[in-house]
Design the sequence.
C-alpha cells in the first residue's frame, strides 16, 4: 500500500479579473536659446489607479473594524462594495525634467540635468491575493494506490463536491490565520530624483575626457523583506519578558489578555493584532535610498587604427533595501519598527570601478601603412586585437545571525553586533596565505559578536550591525579579456571574407579569494576556504561571411 496524506484542491468561486491602470500625459521640447546654450525641458504626469478586481470581489484587513468573534476587538476582514477601492487615485505623481548643455568654447561643454521618475504600477502580489471569502478548498487523499502514480480519482470515483457557500462574507473567518492588508499609501508609487552636472573636454588627438557628478535620491521605495507578516511584529519593548514570551498566556495572569477568549502564547497576545498570525501586504513603500558618484570617462576615436574607451567610477550607494523583489533574500530587514537601522550600503555597492576597452587594427595589408600588396599583405593584413579590462572593488559583506526563537518576536530576521570598526574588522591576507583545509582568517572574530539571547534563544537585543558592512568588503575583481581577429577577403564580392578569431577570457588566469564565512555562529566564521572567479577560457572560431 502506498502512503496517504491530505492535500488541498482549490475550488474557486471567482475568475480573478485584477486590474491596474495608469493614465500618463507627457510633453517635451528642446529649446535652442543661443548657438551655445540648449535646454531640454519635459514634464510627465502619471495618474495611477489602485490595484482592484473588476467586480470588487476583494477582501482585506480593516484595522478599525470590530471583530465580533472576539468581543469587538479591532481588526477584521472587510469586503469591498461594488465600485469601491482600497485606495484612491493619486494625482500628485508629477515628474519634471530639465537638461542644460552649454558650450563654453570650441573644446569645452558643460552639461547638467535634473529629473524625477516614478515606478510603474505593478500588481506584485507575491504574498497576497485579496480573495478571502471568494475561494475555498477541499481536502483530498493522494498516493493511496499500489504505486505512487496510481490515480486516486477517476470517472467512477469523483472528487468530493465542494459544499461550502461562496462568497463567504464572514468578517471573522480568518481569525487564527494570516490576513492580507492593502495599505492605501502604496498607491503613491516609489519616486527617484536624479541629477548630474559635468564637463566634456576635447583635448585633441581625437580624444575626449568627461567628468560628471551623478546622484539620486529615492523615496517611498519598496521594502520586500517586510511584506510577509512583519506588520504584526511584537514591539521590541517586550523583549525584557525573555522566555515568558514563549509560554502560554494562561501561565501569566499578570499579563492581560487582549480579549477574554484569547488562547495562545504571550508573544501572540502582545502582537498588534493577536487574532491573526501574520499580516501580509503586496507592496510596502516606506524605504529610501541615495547614490552619489564621480564618473570620469575618456574616449579616443580611431586614429592610426587605435581606438579606446575608458571609464572610472567612485561612488557610494545606500538604501533601506536592495531590490523590489519578493522575500528577504537580498535585504535582511530586522525590525519593522526601526527602519532607520536598515539604511546601509547596498549589496550592489562597489566603491571603485575602472573599465578600459581598446581595439587596434594592425597597420599591415591593403589599406594599411605597411606591406600593402603581395602575398605578405594577405598574411599580415586584416588583423585586429582588442581587450576588455576591469578592476573593481570587492563586494559588500553581511554578518548574519540565526538560530534564535523566531516565534518570540515574529520579526523578519536578525543581524550580528559590530564591536570594532574600520580596519580592525579584518586581517590582511593574500592568495599565498590560503589554507583550503582549515581556512584562512580574514574577518576578526573579536570585531563581531552574537546578540544576547536567553537559554531558550529568545532575543534580548537587536544586532547593531548594518545590513551590509560599510567598512569591510570582500576581495576585488581584476580581469583582462583579450581577442584577436583575422579577416581575409575572398575577393569575389565586397564584404565577403573569412574570419578567424580567438577569444581569451581572463587572459592572465587571475583568481580572487572567495568571500569569507559570514555566519557569526559558525566555528569557521571569518575564514576563507577557496578562490572565486572563472579560470582562463580560450575559444577559437572560424566564420565565412558573404
Sequence:
Amino acid at each position: 500500500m502506498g502512503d496517504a496524506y491530505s492535500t488541498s484542491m482549490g475550488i474557486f468561486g471567482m475568475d480573478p479579473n485584477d486590474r491596474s491602470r495608469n493614465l500618463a500625459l507627457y510633453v517635451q521640447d528642446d529649446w535652442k536659446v543661443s548657438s551655445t546654450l540648449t535646454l531640454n525641458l519635459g514634464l510627465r504626469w502619471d495618474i495611477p489607479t489602485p490595484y482592484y478586481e473588476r467586480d470588487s470581489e476583494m477582501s482585506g484587513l480593516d484595522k478599525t473594524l470590530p471583530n465580533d468573534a472576539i468581543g469587538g476587538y479591532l481588526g477584521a476582514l472587510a469586503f469591498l462594495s461594488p465600485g469601491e477601492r482600497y485606495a484612491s487615485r493619486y494625482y500628485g505623481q508629477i515628474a519634471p525634467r530639465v537638461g542644460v548643455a552649454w558650450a563654453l568654447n570650441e573644446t569645452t561643454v558643460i552639461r547638467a540635468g535634473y529629473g524625477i521618475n516614478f515606478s510603474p504600477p505593478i500588481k506584485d502580489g507575491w504574498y497576497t491575493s485579496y480573495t478571502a471569502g471568494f475561494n475555498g478548498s477541499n481536502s483530498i487523499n493522494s498516493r493511496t494506490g499500489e504505486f505512487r502514480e496510481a490515480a486516486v480519482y477517476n470517472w467512477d470515483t469523483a472528487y468530493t463536491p465542494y459544499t461550502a457557500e461562496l462568497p463567504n462574507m464572514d468578517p471573522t473567518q480568518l481569525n487564527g490565520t494570516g490576513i492580507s492588508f492593502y495599505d492605501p499609501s502604496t498607491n503613491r508609487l516609489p519616486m527617484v530624483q536624479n541629477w548630474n552636472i559635468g564637463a566634456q573636454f576635447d583635448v585633441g588627438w581625437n580624444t575626449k575626457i568627461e567628468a560628471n557628478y551623478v546622484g539620486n535620491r529615492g523615496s517611498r521605495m519598496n521594502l520586500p523583506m517586510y511584506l510577509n507578516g512583519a506588520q504584526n511584529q511584537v514591539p521590541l519593548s517586550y523583549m525584557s519578558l525573555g522566555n515568558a514570551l514563549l509560554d502560554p498566556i494562561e501561565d501569566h495572569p499578570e499579563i492581560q489578555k487582549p480579549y477574554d477568549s484569547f488562547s495562545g502564547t504571550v508573544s501572540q497576545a502582545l502582537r498588534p493584532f493577536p487574532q491573526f498570525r501574520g499580516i501580509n501586504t503586496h507592496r510596502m513603500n516606506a524605504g529610501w535610498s541615495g547614490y552619489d558618484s564621480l564618473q570620469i570617462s575618456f574616449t579616443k576615436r580611431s586614429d592610426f587604427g587605435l581606438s579606446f574607451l575608458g571609464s572610472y567610477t567612485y561612488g557610494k550607494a545606500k538604501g533601506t533595501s536592495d531590490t523590489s523583489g519578493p522575500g528577504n533574500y537580498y535585504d535582511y530587514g530586522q525590525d519593522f519598527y526601526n527602519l532607520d537601522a536598515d539604511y546601509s550600503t547596498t549589496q550592489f555597492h562597489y566603491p571603485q570601478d575602472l573599465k578600459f576597452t581598446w581595439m587596434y587594427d594592425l597597420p599591415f595589408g591593403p589599406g594599411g601603412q605597411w606591406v600593402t600588396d603581395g602575398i605578405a599583405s594577405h598574411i599580415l593584413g586584416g588583423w585586429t586585437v582588442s581587450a576588455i579590462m576591469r578592476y573593481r572593488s570587492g563586494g559588500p559583506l553581511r554578518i548574519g545571525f540565526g538560530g534564535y526563537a523566531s516565534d518570540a518576536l515574529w520579526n523578519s530576521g536578525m543581524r550580528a553586533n559590530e564591536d570594532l570598526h574600520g580596519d580592525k574588522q579584518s586581517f590582511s591576507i593574500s592568495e599565498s596565505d590560503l589554507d583550503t583545509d582549515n581556512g584562512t582568517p580574514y574577518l576578526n572574530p573579536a570585531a563581531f559578536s552574537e546578540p544576547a539571547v536567553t537559554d531558550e534563544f529568545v532575543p534580548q537585543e537587536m544586532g547593531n550591525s548594518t545590513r551590509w558592512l560599510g567598512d569591510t568588503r570582500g576581495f576585488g575583481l581584476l580581469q583582462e579579456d583579450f581577442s584577436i581577429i583575422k579577416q581575409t577577403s575572398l575577393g569575389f564580392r565586397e564584404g565577403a571574407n573569412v574570419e578567424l578569431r580567438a577569444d581569451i577570457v581572463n587572459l592572465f588566469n587571475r583568481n580572487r579569494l572567495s568571500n569569507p564565512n559570514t555566519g557569526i555562529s559558525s566555528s569557521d566564521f571569518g575564514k576563507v576556504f577557496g578562490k572565486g572567479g572563472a579560470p582562463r577560457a580560450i575559444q577559437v572560431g572560424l566564420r565565412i561571411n558573404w
Summary: The longest helix spans residues 375-380. Helices lie at 266-269, 375-380, 406-409. The chain is about 5% helix and 40% strand.
